[in-house]
Prior knowledge:
The protein has helices spanning 11-38, 40-45, 50-87, 94-115, 120-142, 148-186. By secondary structure, it is mainly alpha-helical. It folds into 2 domains: 11-76 and 88-146, no CATH class; 148-187. Helix 1 (11-38) packs across helix 3. The longest helix is centred in the last third of the chain and has 39 residues, at 148-186. The protein is globular and about 60 Å long.
Amino acid sequence: MKKNIYFFSYFPLVGTLLFSMAFSLYTFELLTDEAKKIGLYQGLSEYVSTTNLNMALFFVLCVFLMMLFSLFKLLGDTFIKLSLLFFSREREGLYFHVSQSASAIFVVGGLIALICSNNIYLLIGCLVLTTLCFFGFILYKLATKLSIYGMAGVITFQIGIWSAIAIASYLLVAKVLTYAINQLVSI
Length: 187
């Protein structure tokens, strides 16, 4: 009996939801603690019940983080396909089949992240480790279709593009924070 090739097609969505929920739980606790310290939470709870306030905040965090992780998933798939375009001899579309089954790695990582949702370092470590396992699994499965130079090219391309995105994001956040601090100081 041959299994349906679309059996794992919903796994990327489930993995993204699990990671979004895990990071939302941590961020929710952080935001509610800070809002209670400055008195914002008590002020809002006069107008809205705490249950509705908590649900709304958690929902907004989940939606925002779901969009963020979906963006990273889209960029990751695009960058892997682009690197395979440049460095692979493969013509059958093996990446599609490999990435479908490899997405189970993100589901397992998301479940572990839910368990570790009270520690940001464990959450980030789980996300990074899951991503590296996913990439390693993809490279392992595609190794027969890549030469040693192709493999080095794919790895170098991935490291280069993600490093450029990380540096640009860091510089953007630093610039925004510097601007915000300067505006606060000038008040």
